[in-house]
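Fold it.
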Amino acid sequence: MPPAPRILTAGDSALVAEYGDAIDVRVNARVRQLQRTLEASGHAGLVELVPTYRSLMVHYDPMVLSHEAVAGLVLGAAGHLPEDFGESARAVDIPVLYGGGEGPDLGDVAARSGLREEEVVELHAAGDYLVFMIGFMPGFPYLGGLPHAIATPRLATPRTLVPAGSVGIAGAQTGIYPSESPGGWRLIGRTPVRLFDARLDPPALLQAGDHLRFVPVSRADYDGIVREVERDAYRPLVRAVPAGP
């Protein structure tokens, strides 16, 4: 029998189904499987399902469903998830201009890692990153798969303004700022690709379960993509990923 999640109350119109306390690929896959199963049920009263690293927040209409009823739906769905399962996913290529003004912390990451800047870029761009969750701000992807050699702590003092598209490292995670924001991640590059556009449906380019690959580009290529994005003419390369845990 598959493991049952722990049910936590989150106010009077939401609960959390929690699987463990670690960032783990299989735990995260189970969270997304539970999300898809509940979405497919089409049950009246379920308002929104929000996956995280290791849990699923279930927003519901308390005028339609009680907390106990929602907990029963969640536990019932969780009890019928397969022990082993795979999922088809997308892989999205994200062009990045590393270093310089776009990546002001690249040298610091290199120094802390005992590597040359070129080696940091090579390692970062070689990763196959999983989008574990979207959070912090609309469209911000928390990515797992950063090579251990370039894991670097957050800045001691966050910046008051991080440009949209900045690619950063924080501990064992890497991510991309979709919009201008304060932030403490160490910035190693920048992408011209829009990760969030309220005009689109869905507005976020990435979603939990997607895979991502960073593709280093030159200044000339970066500037060319900027012009395409400004004309709404740029579309990132999206590939299919075979089913897997």
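The two ends are 18 Å apart (CA to CA).
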